Amino acid sequence: MQVLRDHFEKIISLTDTEFSYISSFFRHRKVMKKQFILQEGDPVSHEYFVVKGCLKAYVLDSEDKTHILSFALADWWTSDYQALYTHTPSSIFLEAVVPTEIYYIAQEDKERLCAEMHKVEHFWRKKNAMGYVGLQRRILSMLTHNAKDRYEQLLQQYPALFQVVPKQDLAAFLGVSRETLSRLYSKKM
User: Fold this and answer.
1) 141 within a domain of the structure (yes/no)
2) Where in the sequence is the signal peptide annotated (predicted)?
3) CA-to-CA separations, 113 to 18, 22, 132, in angstroms, rounded
4) Does residue 42 contact residue 93 with C-beta atoms inside 8 Å?
5) Domain membership flag for residue 126
């Protein structure tokens, strides 16, 4: 739980008693490579914090082509937020890329903590804002940059992804073919 406490304390300070109370709402889980946390159509009631490993969020189109929306490395939060906040079934798959360890919290418990502790609400407000910034950055990159620029930007911002994520998943995330990614990768070597 120290990893979770350290994560919270990057934004807010907590006493031992406060963290003990907060941590009582979290559960721990180890997820095997290729194991699903969510599948399309599942009910969504939790948010997930990655302790170590990597998760990928993706959708399949009508031709079963994979479109990766995001990755979550250590120290990141993830879920199907649309489903979580609108109380609708999941529209995405959330799957472990490698063996992954997570803490997770039920949305109702998160709301309770936010109502009871202003500093916890502040923490999640900051995390949500940064998540929105990341999403906007990704959308703008997809709209305004070519594949080579998106690849270089991803490599610069998240070099750890290239250590754990298979090339086919990186290609799906960047919106390019596996062959295009290989050409971009070979030019960097």
Assistant:
1) no
2) none
3) 10, 7, 22
4) no
5) no
Whether the model clears a pTM of 0.90, i.e. scores above it, the answer is yes
Tell me the backbone φ, ψ of residue 63, rounded to 5 degrees: -105, 15
Please name which of 83, 86, 59 lies closest in space to residue 70, comparing C-alpha atoms: 59
What separation in angstroms does the CA of 1 have from each of 30, 103, 119? 14, 9, 19
- CB-based contacts of 166: which residues, under 8 Å, 6+ apart? 97
- Total structural domains within the chain: 1
Which CATH number covers residue 81? 2.60.120.10
Segments forming the whole domain that contains residue 109: 2-116
Q: How many CB atoms lie within 10 A of CB 120?
A: 22
Q: What is the pLDDT of residues 20-59, one digit of tens each?
A: 999 999 999 999 999 999 999 999 999 999 999 999 999 9
- Band of pLDDT at residue 188, cut at 50, 70 and 90: low
Q: Are 85 and 69 in contact (CB under 8 A)?
A: no
Whether 154 is covered by a domain: the verdict is no
